[in-house]
Amino acid sequence: MAWETWGGDKQYGIDTLIGRGCRIVGKVVFQGGLRVDGQIIGDVQADPVGAGYLILPAEGRIEGEVRVSAMVVAGEVLGNLHVTGRVELLARARIIGDISYASIKMRAGCSVTGQLRPFNDLNVPDAHASLPAAQGPEGYNRNILIFKAGAFT
């Protein structure tokens, strides 16, 4: 499986497994690592907030808000993601909702219908801070900065 490049279950140590064919309706609160091969209809939250990590293989599906510190997604999420650390969207991932993150990796083929919201939106690399497009009410104009810096050209 693709999340093995992260070290897979051995690196993180999965504490809770929701197996294929299992369907949970309601809020899920967990500690440590959670792997969802089945389906959750309800919010998923690490306890303490933002301290746990979630692995969602291609067979997995979550319908609700997710609040974790790290997440690898190959399955489907219908709801907003709040990831205080790193989120990795694999090629088959499908997200319908906004993603708040500190670090994100998106592989070709993944789908996001929503907004990407970095937690450190005001961090502008020093090399780009002097660009004319970088000046604005907050000290820079992020949309123009990305274009001027050559990210999309």
Task: Write a compact overview of the structure shown.
The chain is mainly beta.
> How many domains would you count in the coordinates?
2
Alpha plus pi helix count: 3
- Most strands sheet: 10 strands, parallel
Average pLDDT = 79
What general outline do the C-alpha atoms trace? Answer: globular
Low-confidence stretches are 1-10, 132-140, 142-153
Classify the helix fraction into a percent range: 10-25%
How far is the first residue's CA from the last residue's CA? 34 Å
Radius of gyration: 17 Å
Structure summary, number of beta strands: 16
Order of helices and strands: HEEEEEEEEEEEEEEEEHH
* Secondary-structure class: mainly beta
Strand content bin: 35-45%
Provide key terms for this protein.
ten-stranded parallel beta sheet, globular, 153 residues, six-stranded parallel beta sheet, 2 domains, 41% strand, mainly beta
